[in-house]
Amino acid sequence: MSEQLALLNAPSEVVQLRERLGADWPSITKARADALTVIDRLQAGLGGHVPPDTSFVVYGSLARREFTAGSDLDWTLLLDGPSDPAHREAEILLRRRLEELEFKEPNPVGTFGRLTVSHDLIHKIGGEDDTNRNTTQRILLLLESIPIGDAPAYTGVVRNVLRRYIEEDLLGPGDSPYRVPRFLQNDVARYWRTMTVDFAHKRRLRGSGWALRTAKLRMSRKLIYAAGLLSCFSCETEFVAQARGSGRADTPLVVGHLEALVRKTPLDIVARFVLQYFGELSGCARDLFGAYDAFLSMLNDARREHLDGLSADVAGEDPVYEEARAMGQRFQDALTRMFFESDTPLPELTKRYGVF
Amino acid sequence: METIGFSTGSLARADVHAALALLHDYPTGCVELSALRMHELAPLLRSLPNLPIKDYRYISVHAPSAFTAAEEREIAAGLLPVAARGWLIVLHPDAIHDFSVWRAFGDRLAIENMDRRKPVGRTVEELRPVFARLPHASFCFDVAHARQCDTSMTEAFRLLDSFGDRLAEVHVSELDANSRHIRLSRTAIRASLEIARLVPVDVPIIVEAPVRPHEIEDELMASLQAMGRSSSSARQVAA
Questions:
Q1: Mean confidence (pLDDT) of chain B
Q2: Dihedral sign of CA atoms B193, B195, B200, B202 in order
Q3: Which of A251, A262, A263 to mutate to test the interface with B (most CBs of B within 10 A)?
């Protein structure tokens, strides 16, 4: 087993939480095990195909370690270094190699499945040049991504993006980085809102896939937003001791803290917070993770295909859609209790940063 | 000015005598004698008794950056008496074949962090096992290598945060796209300044940028500025 896979295989916060709750989340467990197998297969299959100064980065369900039967492979070849015409050839060869390995291709005109250059991700945050694709790649890099194999390019880009968010949030010389990074948190919130608006746009544009997209929006899309918020809030809640008198020179500590969270899955980030306030949040956690386990179970059997083919006008009477709607409601209720009604710092932070 | 100096390799590659002659008129208290290429080591060791280095407060030797397993013991045997003088031996971690050969050097051996071309020694995670096998070894922090691996300087910060208690020498320069050492740019100075506070003022700075004789003073000043030691030290250089 590779070093990277051994690290990924280490007992995660989700496993710790599951054991403390005495819960059984078979679909979460299976999806994670399947994801690790796929990551291992990718590592072995792509060895030698990824040029220096680049990282092969995957996003989506594989990065969340929630790989199910219908999962496709969202990837980019991330370049952080001198430009070389050979990079384009490498992109083509990688695409062919993935076909040989029988991975499901991402949308050919979409955000993934191509070479991505670090420059735009780092420099074009906000403004007219920050296209929907650029925002998506940047925020998903922070919320649900994982490098396959050697990762210096990936690590460098993640750190530089985080550094921009943290440093440019400090307006005065005495400002401390040990606080909620508003620039980052607003961009994560903006991305979540963009997803919800694009959802409506796609519903108008495409006939099919609406019900499955709805379920994903209510579960996995909402999960990464919640994990993003918790990551931002942790810059304040987990550095309380240092928060007095520390200046911007400590920015690398906060960047390092957030980078460590980028390496975790969204479920692990939520579980990590639950473990910190275990007694208070264990009830929420049972509902939240229970609903999510049911969601992954649905994605791994015939109900996925059923939802994918379901149109909006008949969904109201469809039992599978009703089941998906109910698990979405249970998930939302648990998040509402956690973020708005718990005896933790979350309600105050959500009030202070989450709306205005 | 006692805590800055040049690597002889930056001034005259293998010709240590020529490099020291060029430095004669500058008030640098430190020098690193370079034997970066294998064939440079034996001549350097032979010439040590005759080198004009008595005025240097701090002297280190850079060991060859690549050698075979068969050559390793001979190299270590040649360098051990040098370390016994109290001089630091700077070694690249990827060059090591047998760690036991180097344990006798104790804290007179300094392991240097590597550039992104190397498969090991670039990050905290990659250096930790090296120091675990050489528990008394010192740390030679190369700012350019760290910055090349991570331009956000987070890894530089982490390296100094993790191995700061071992820090014995700092290499200052910049790297070009081909990983060659070059003179400091304004951007490199600015980046270095971000971690300069983590380097104690008594830790020697070794300039690794290749310079022509008329550029020595400017590069010393730039390097001092990069490490946040500009004012009084720079005035001494200028004088």
A1: 94
A2: negative
A3: A251
